[in-house]
Amino acid sequence: MICFDHGASIDNINDDRWKQYGGGSGSGGLPGNDVLCIAKDKSGFIWVGTNDGIGVIQCTQDVFTGSGCDAILPLVQQGNFAGYLFKGEEVRSIAVDGADRKWVATKNGAWLISADGEKLISQFNETNSPLLSNDVNRIAIDGYTGEIYFSTAKGICSFRGEATEAGEKNNDLLIFPNPVPPGYTGTIGIRGLVNNAIVKITELNGRLIYQSRALGGQVVWDGRDYRGQRISSGVYLVLITDDTRKENLAGKIVFISK
User: Fold this and answer.
1) How far apart are CA 133 and CA 171, in angstroms?
2) Of the candidates 232, 187, 190, which has an alpha carbon nearest to the alpha carbon of residue 207?
3) Which of 55, 114, 174, 244 has its CA 20 to 30 A from that of 3?
4) What does the pLDDT profile of the chain (258 residues) look like in tens digits?
């Protein structure tokens, strides 16, 4: 992999700068020389997928300085053991969702990992999900809807993710489905939020039913209270704010049980 800077003018080759990233310490720090994909996350870090796992370039501002900027190899905890992220795996595609989590495509299925790469959140394969094939080539994300698209050896399929791209303000609030029809057992999406917004569901008298934080610009709720009980018919308030308490927004959800 090569990092290239054309300098002040793209036509002047005399101020061009470049750095080559390869495998091993002192050569770029990547886990392997066969680079298959790259992705930039919301912290500006560059995630590099290779034939032998993932490397992350965190100090991009120092790439062309004397100290340089080699990739680091994230460690992920698996039970009582820790290992390098996707060591031994061919990482074909990396996509970043609205909550800065990473979706990873391999020949052994698709994976969702935490924003820092230190936790495996979910793994999708033909056995435990509707994924068409374990042989996943590419992953793409619709940031507005949160839909995750998987290109596999047997075709394309999608999955409605929990995270959407966050806005700068809580606006254009969308709650769906709303009203919630009788017999509905799916999840309820609350979209149009700032990142990490606090969402509270209350009765009209103010009694708290449920509280969560947004993943990117969306909260997904299963329609149950803190005790795991399905809530009854009625009108419920949606109260939203960020950590500064400056962005406040209210909506309503109508539940129809019968």
Assistant:
1) 38
2) 232
3) 114
4) 999 999 888 899 999 999 999 998 878 999 999 999 999 999 999 999 999 999 999 998 898 888 788 999 998 876 666 789 999 999 999 999 999 999 999 999 999 999 999 999 999 999 999 999 999 999 999 998 899 999 999 999 999 888 888 877 766 788 999 999 998 888 999 988 888 889 999 999 989 999 999 998 899 999 999 889 989 999 999 998 877 776 576 889 999 877
Whole-Å CA distances, 185 to 130, 162, 222, 231, 252:
19, 16, 8, 12, 19
- Please say whether the beta carbons of 168 and 201 come within 8 A: no
Among 74, 71, 91, smallest CA distance to 136 is for: 91
Grouping H, G, I as helix, E, B as strand and the rest as coil, residue 238 is: strand
Q: What is the pTM of this model?
A: 0.82
In this structure, the dihedral spanned by the alpha carbons of residues 215, 218, 220 and 226, taken in order and rounded to 10 degrees, is 70
Determine whether 155 is exposed, middle or buried from the number of CB atoms within 10 Å of its CB (0-12, 13-18, 19+).
exposed
Contacts of 150 (CB under 8 A, 6+ apart): 105, 110, 124, 131, 132, 136, 138, 139, 156, 157, 158, 159
Identity of the amino acid at 134: N
The b/e string for 170-195 (b: 16+ C-beta within 10 A; e otherwise) is beeeebeebebeeeeeeebbbbbbbb
Integer Cα distance of 217 and 196 in angstroms: 7
Backbone angles phi, psi at 15, to 5 degrees: -105, 15
